[in-house]
Amino acid sequence: MNSTVKLGIFYIYKLMERGLKFFNIINFESRKSENSEKYFMSAHLKSGESVQALQVEIKKTTHKTSHVNAEYANIHTHQGVVEGGDIKIKYLKGGRVHADTVSVDFAENGIIEANHIYIKKLGSRNKLTAADIIEIDKAEGAKNTITVKPIFDEERYAAVSTLYEKIMFYKKELEKTQKMAHMKRLEVENSLLDVQNCRAKIKLSRAEGKLPDSELLVKVREFDILSKSYRQLTNMIESLQTHIDIAAAEFKTCMEEGGFSYQQKVICNSFWKSGNKITFVLPKYDLSYYPLNNEYAAEIYLWYNCELLLDAKGEFEIKINKKE
């Protein structure tokens, strides 16, 4: 190899070396920047480091005191805080995530707040909160707190809830009144023949110019009071039914205008372990469910009693789609 070629190779090497050093400096600078604009990539995010970028990729770990803010983030092992849009994490170990969509391969001691959460393997002591769907491929751990917070239109919910309570009140009163009316009707029917005989005897006594027997008069009077009470109950039944029909029509209109469509659910594609808690947060109260050990509760979801069934436990219930 002649001297010219050797000199050329030497300069190329030096240029490459300088370029590599320049790249390292830029990478170091971007890791320290809080307002990186587009793409950030690093092996680690160290203690106290903060990064903000459109897309972030951490090849290894984030420190528990680090902070990431990104529209898209892909992190291998996360222990710090990450906020953003679409976040993917291989191992979540004690870290916090606040995002729109979160996908995690394995989670333990983590805290996730998102609209949609997908976890391949759920370890223990995690706190998951979603506004939409939480999907778990395999539930391996315990002491997990899983919370679904449906988004409510408070004004519309208040209107529908008021109508619901009114209808339920009328329906319960109707059911109670119908039972009372049924008992009264049986009393009337059972007394009718005897009272008819009493009336006939009273009529005969008066035709003969005699005073009717006082016991006969008391029986007829009691029957008249009983019949009047029965008629009042039947009138009350008609009135209650009218109130129900009017309120139910308003309820139906209100439901059709906005509609309660709660697709929020917890999906688990494996058997559950005991010691996990699933809660649906509602405007007036919360509903919780505790899966049993080895229970295959594939879908745990919120059910709204829009059919206005009296045998329902309340306005909302937790329903379970189980698989054997």
List the SSEs and their pairings.
Layout: H1 3-32, E1 39-45, E2 50-62, E3 67-78, E4 81-93, E5 96-108, E6 111-122, E7 127-139, E8 145-148, H2 154-207, H3 214-258, E9 265-268, E10 277-281, E11 286-289, E12 297-304, E13 316-322
Description:
This protein is of the alpha/beta class. Helix content is 40%, strand content 35%. The protein has three helices and 13 strands, in the order αββββββββααβββββ. Strands 1, 2, 3, 4, 5, 6, 7, 8, 9, 10, 11, 12 and 13 form a 13-stranded mixed sheet that branches. α2 packs antiparallel against α3. The model is unreliable at 1-35 (pLDDT under 50).
Structure, briefly:
The chain has 324 residues and is an alpha/beta fold. Helix content is 40%, strand content 35%.
